[in-house]
């Protein structure tokens, strides 16, 4: 497939990124609305892809994935890890760039390697609900980190999963304070919480090692804010980042800030000046 839309890139000619948005949920609605209102200079919403009929709810034509690949040069994934697994390589092989919000899919190391090797399209990842990833990625150049810990605390109801046994569910539902739900590595934990622990995979992506990142998931009935604490240390320094976000009112499993992180990434890909890279 030829993508002549960007024939002028790199020559000083400004081109509009033609964006296809996959997913019209809590993240997609915010991103799509902002694009429709031209709040991301250099980016235009061309279509929306969703497995539900959206009718008048979508501000752009609802197309199939194949049609989106024909019309767009950038696909924004805002629909979950399954989309990344099913479509990621195909998007990149078509010569279309891909911005991934559901970084939890990258805990499948084989998939991650295939996406990073695929092309000619380019794959990008948004930082989502946590900060400091740019610094951790820079620190890798100094050598490996000895220890990386992520503690994620959310409301119990947002963490309930089909694999949980009756005892754990009862502890979570009757808790009057913090309860550890699961601990493990960034390789293991995001698989158990496909809608709630993309942050773990994002930290591992920045660090460059799924097994180095130890993850603790905590349920707390008093967690009116979703909290992520990243602690990392090595021979060259020590780092600590803590964030507390309001959950999205439509989807409490994700933080309210996530679609705005996607929009920031979009702005950078569209060439907005003044971005912190």
From TrEMBL:
Domain of life per record: Bacteria
Keywords: NAD, NADP, Oxidoreductase, Pyridine nucleotide biosynthesis
InterPro entries: Asp/hSer_DH_NAD-bd (IPR005106), Asp_DH (IPR002811), Asp_DH_prok (IPR020626), L-Asp_DH (IPR011182), NAD(P)-bd_dom_sf (IPR036291)
Example GO BP: NAD+ biosynthetic process
Alphabetical list of Gene3D superfamilies matching this protein: Dihydrodipicolinate Reductase, domain 2, NAD(P)-binding Rossmann-like Domain
Oxidoreductase is among the record's keywords: yes
Pfam families attached to this UniProt entry: Asp_DH_C (PF01958), NAD_binding_3 (PF03447)
Group of enzyme by EC: oxidoreductase
Molecular functions (GO terms): aspartate dehydrogenase [NAD(P)+] activity; NAD binding; NADP binding; oxidoreductase activity, acting on the CH-NH2 group of donors, NAD or NADP as acceptor
Domain Aspartate/homoserine dehydrogenase NAD-binding: 23-118
Positions of the Aspartate dehydrogenase domain: 176-262
Catalytic residue positions: 228
Pathway assignment: Cofactor biosynthesis; NAD(+) biosynthesis; iminoaspartate from L-aspartate (dehydrogenase route): step 1/1
Keyword Glycoprotein assigned: no
EC code(s) of this entry: 1.4.1.21
Catalytic activity: L-aspartate + NADP(+) + H2O = oxaloacetate + NH4(+) + NADPH + H(+); L-aspartate + NAD(+) + H2O = oxaloacetate + NH4(+) + NADH + H(+)
Binding sites annotated in the UniProt record for NAD(+): 129, 198
Other comment: The iminoaspartate product is unstable in aqueous solution and can decompose to oxaloacetate and ammonia.
Function: Specifically catalyzes the NAD or NADP-dependent dehydrogenation of L-aspartate to iminoaspartate.
Family assignment from sequence similarity: Belongs to the L-aspartate dehydrogenase family.
Name assigned to this protein: L-aspartate dehydrogenase
Organism for this UniProt entry: Streptomyces kanamyceticus
Recorded name of the encoding gene: nadX
